[in-house]
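Forum: Protein Structure Q&A
Topic: Joint prediction for protein chains with partners

I've read a bunch of threads here and the consensus seems to be that you should model interacting components together rather than docking separate models afterwards. I'd like to see that in practice. Below is the full input, 251 residues plus whatever partners are listed. Could one of the regulars post the assembled result?
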Amino acid sequence: MNQIVTDWRDAAPLSRVDFEAAIRNVGVERYHDKHEFHKLLHGGKLKKPQVAAWALNRYCYQEAVPRKDAAFMSRVHDRELRREWIHRIHDHDGLGEEAGGIERWLVLTDALGFPRDYVTSRRGALPATKFAVEAYVRFVVEQPLVVAVASSLTELFAPSIHRERIVGMLENYDFVDDHVMAYFKRRLSQAPRDSDFALAYVLDNARTREEQEACVAAVRFKCDVLWAQLDALHHAYVTPGLIPPGAWRPE
Ligand SMILES: O=C(O)c1cc(C(=O)O)c2c(n1)C(=O)C(=O)c1cc(C(=O)O)[nH]c1-2
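Posted by a regular:
Agreed with the consensus. Here's the joint model:
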């Protein structure tokens, strides 16, 4: 029987190559591109209200990301690291003339028929969505900095799901066009910049095996945050179709 190792204190550190491979392997095993809800979404198998439920709930994630980045920065004493990290907040919230990712997300929810103040109130979101995204914010507040950075590394796997989503949704849904998919198009260039920086930071700064394993576990945790949101959507809006009290109900 394989023994499950839980104490890494005396173990030798992984080489840089093996450490990176361990991080990437988490994506192969459990990134949310494998979730049934995404297969339905990208394959054109959902009805418009089901796509709407996804966009409404996913707004909560979009809105939590710049808050977790601000929470992260509040703990950083290294000015260079803050100078690098701050663009993540600008990418989502916008800066000056640049409207930002949250605005682009609201273009999507506009197209799906939601009033903006309903979306931004988060009133219609599923309970599990709200718990999952806040767990991510808390994680980044509480964990060592290098582990907090590692939790963003699911972004290594995001460009391929974004490409799949752009093609799949444009092809399959008549309520989707280039303007509506602008959020994902922009992320294709933003995400690799973020994940390249975060990966180099983690590989450089997690030195002991214990720190390395905590970083790999952070990527697993983050996959759970993403997966839980899709489980909740599937349960409420696909099958068995049990919508919790207070959550948005298609007419
Ligand atoms: O559509 C997706 O599958 C997806 C996944 C992720 C991710 O893996 O966390 C992010 C995004 N999109 C995204 O658009 C985004 O801005 C983003 C920021 C972060 C982060 O952890 O800081 N993840 C993600």
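DSSP finds eleven helices and no strands in the chain.
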